[in-house]
Write a structure and sequence with these properties.
Elements lengths: L3 E7 L3 E8 L4 E8 L11 E2 L1 H19 L6 E8 L5 E3 L10 E2 L7 H7 L9 H4 L8 H10 L4 H6 L4 E3 L1 H9 L9 E3 H4 L5 E2 L4 E2 L1 H7 L8 E3 L2 E6 L11 E7 H8 L8 E5 L3 E8 L10 E6 L7 E8 L3 H9 L9 H6 L9 E3 L17 E3 L7 H27 L6 E4 L6 H11 L3 E4 L4 H14 L5 H6 L3 E5 L5 H16 L6
Parallel strand pairs: 1-5, 5-14, 9-12, 15-21, 21-22
Antiparallel strand pairs: 1-2, 2-3, 4-7, 6-8, 10-11, 13-14, 15-16, 16-18, 17-18, 19-20, 22-23
Length: 500
């Protein structure tokens, strides 16, 4: 058996390739950032060609660091920023437009125009999603509406659509030279074009958005061999590309949340709480998303409830870069520790509206409760607490929708090293918070999926045995204090409404 498995983690700000051994230990990793493009307020784009090039660069360098060749990889998995939309020419691989990123808000009017009787939930029964700028379908429509000749090119077979996973797999398997045009059920479930019941593209949604089916990738499971890499200066052999999961579903998989009612929260650029609901599709009445958690080969799909928060780690970056509060993101914890509490202020980071459970694109960010007493430490602490408060809103909604009382939560993502955040999260949820020994759960989830498909690992039970606890936080806050703080947060959130 081959000794290693590899996974691409293509995120909002960077791309990396991680090589694991059979014990889930990281053997090698390389990471590169890419540009953030902001053509107008509320617009966010990436250069797809830059991302493609970065992907090959990080694979090549990680292999070199490990002192191995690609021939020693059992397979390659992909995990990716979801919803981000690329439309390209299959003859050349040239994009017709920059990638429109999941955070981008230019499709706000399209979403409003598509709402039947102003009901943004009018297609939830098909897709599990509300009409929102977040998802791929309206982004595809915008590109078609704003690119001359694109519809004619699509009819001629000269247009392909894909999220980042599809784009990377297409290039890994040859690009214009026979590249495989596929996606998996988790990414497809974020397009607003897939039926949760059939796990296939829904004709009625394609008609609503005016999207020709010919441009869409074939939907597969999250764990199977989609194709093989081409031999080139990166790959010295044809390696199976065998795992594909959207980033948050990959984290659910990497956290070994294989049982109904198990949940994880990822604290990254945004914040994403997912709970496994098994084979049952739970349609949310509380503003959550119903999505596909994962699908292993020919096994039935496991569905999930998801609450998405637009700003978590990116709020820390904003304080660092725009307001120059500190030099490094990690310094926010030191600044927050300089004060005993938030001083009575709340920071609601609705910079691009509010996501779950509110879905208010008219909301904008605020800091409220300011007095002469407030200093940088209080603002830093309020920024940290914002992620925990938003998670609490989603946590409560998830319990109502599912009827399941969550007893613990598994945490991952870049912010889990922040002790203040983890303790405050436990306090405000009033449950223990677990941090796994292997914190790179998103890319590990992609590796798990790839390894199951190639026989590198045999079963999910084997994967679960690799999950070990590093740290646990237990609640220490009184009920009175918890309720007082949370009620203040809810009051602050309402003040963000109707800004636009």
């Amino acid at each position: 058996m081959k000794k290693y498995i590899g996974a691409v983690d293509q995120g909002t700000t960077s791309t990396r390739f991680v090589i694991f051994n059979h014990d889930c230990e990281i053997v090698s990793m390389h990471q590169l950032e890419h540009r953030q493009i902001y053509p107008k307020p509320g617009w966010v784009e990436h250069d797809p060609v830059e991302i493609k090039n970065r992907t090959f660069e990080v694979i090549k360098t990680a292999l070199k660091k490990a002192g191995i060749t690609s021939k020693e990889l059992s397979g390659i998995g992909i995990t990716n920023q979801r919803e981000t939309t690329i439309v390209w020419d299959p003859r050349t691989g040239d994009p017709y437009y920059n990638a429109i990123v999941w955070q981008d808000m230019r499709t706000d009017q399209i979403c409003k125009d598509l709402a039947v009787n102003s009901d943004m939930d009018c297609y939830r029964h098909i897709t599990g999603l509300p009409l929102a700028t977040y998802f791929s379908g309206p982004k595809i429509k915008w590109i078609f509406d704003n690119t001359d000749g694109l519809r004619d090119a699509a009819v001629r077979g000269n247009v392909l659509f894909g999220n980042i996973d599809t784009w990377i797999i297409w290039w890994l398997t040859g690009g214009p030279d026979g590249g495989v045009h596929v996606t998996d059920v988790t990414n497809a479930s974020r397009t607003m074009l897939m039926s949760l019941n059939t796990l296939d593209w829904d004709e009625s949604m394609l008609d609503v958005l005016g999207i020709p089916e010919i441009i869409l990738p074939v939907i597969h499971s999250s764990s199977e061999i989609y194709g093989h890499t081409k031999v080139n200066d990166v790959f010295n052999d044809t390696i199976p590309v065998s795992g594909d999961l959207g980033d948050q579903q990959a984290a659910l998989f990497g956290q070994a949340c294989f049982e109904v009612g198990e949940a994880k929260n990822t604290y990254g650029t945004g914040c994403f709480l997912l709970m496994n609901t098994g084979e049952k599709i739970v349609h949310s009445k509380q503003g959550l998303l119903t999505t596909v958690g994962y699908k292993i080969g020919k096994q039935p799909a496991a569905y999930a409830l998801e609450g998405s928060i637009a700003m978590a780690g990116s709020l820390v970056q904003w304080l660092r870069d725009n307001l120059e509060f500190f030099d490094a993101s990690a310094d926010i914890e030191t600044m927050a520790k300089s004060v005993p509490d938030n001083g009575g202020i709340y920071f609601v980071p609705a910079f691009s509206g509010l996501f779950a459970p509110h879905w208010r694109s008219d909301a904008r960010g605020l800091i409220i409760g300011m007095t002469h007493y407030i200093n940088k430490g209080h603002i830093a602490r309020a920024a940290i607490e914002a992620s925990a408060f938003q998670t609490k809103e989603i946590f409560d909604a998830m319990e109502k929708d599912s009827g399941i009382g969550l007893k613990t939560i598994k945490a991952d993502g870049g912010m889990v090293v922040n002790e203040i955040l983890m303790q405050f999260q436990s306090d405000i949820l009033n449950i223990p918070v677990f941090r796994p020994k292997i914190s790179e759960t998103t890319v590990l989830g992609a590796a798990f999926a790839a390894g199951l498909a190639t026989g590198f690992w045999d079963t999910t039970d084997e994967l679960k045995s690799n999950w070990t606890l590093e740290r646990k936080w237990d609640p220490e806050m009184s009920d009175k204090k918890r309720n007082e703080l949370y009620n203040g947060w809810l009051k602050a959130v309402k003040r963000t409404y109707d800004w636009l």
